[in-house]
Design goal:
- It is built from four helices and eight strands.
- 28% of the residues lie in helices and 27% in strands.
- The protein starts with 6 loop residues before the first strand and ends with a strand.
- The protein is α/β, with parallel strands linked by helices and 166 residues long.
């Protein structure tokens, strides 16, 4: 009962780049970004996690918030709004887990987790996950190579974990 007023935020952004106009041999053409990986893969995983956690909620001591952010591609405006205007209990957020572009795991695109170099406890947890027999084994990444919603939380000093395949 002491931890029920602390929150784990699990999020994914719903937008993607959409369309872009490019010049091909002097002709302007429309380039379409379908968004299956960025970020329908994260949204689909978030929906499945919500279903599983709802069925096993008795295992969780903290409350879990499933956040579907908009405007990530426009400077993470949705997660900024959540933290600065929408959610009044930001100091009670214990961690943020971000699911962004997790649909292309293969030889070159490893399933990675970025936790921030200063979070040794969380890094230990991720490394222990690799020891379990599972079809997906995350690799701890020391580099956060692209901007996404987790950065808004990290800037507020909230521990983060970005799951991605790049």
């Amino acid at each position: 009962k002491q931890l029920c007023n602390e929150y784990i935020v699990i999020g994914a952004h719903m937008d993607h780049l959409g369309v872009n106009r490019i010049s091909v041999n002097g002709e302007e053409r429309l380039q379409i970004y379908g968004g299956a990986d960025d970020n329908a893969s994260g949204v689909a995983t978030l929906i499945e996690l919500a279903r599983e956690i709802a069925n096993n909620k008795f295992l969780f001591r903290r409350s879990v918030i499933f956040a579907f952010f908009g405007a990530e591609e426009l400077g993470m405006a949705g997660s900024w709004y959540f933290l600065n205007r929408s959610f009044g209990e930001v100091p009670n957020i214990a961690m943020m887990i971000n699911l962004d572009m997790i649909g292309r795991s293969d030889g070159e695109n490893r399933f990675q987790v970025f936790t921030g170099v200063s979070n040794l406890e969380l890094n230990t947890i991720v490394n222990n996950l690799k020891m379990r027999q599972a079809s997906i084994q995350p690799v701890l990444s020391g580099t956060d190579y692209f901007p996404s919603d987790h950065r808004m939380f990290h800037e507020k000093g909230i521990p983060i974990a970005l799951f991605t395949t790049g």
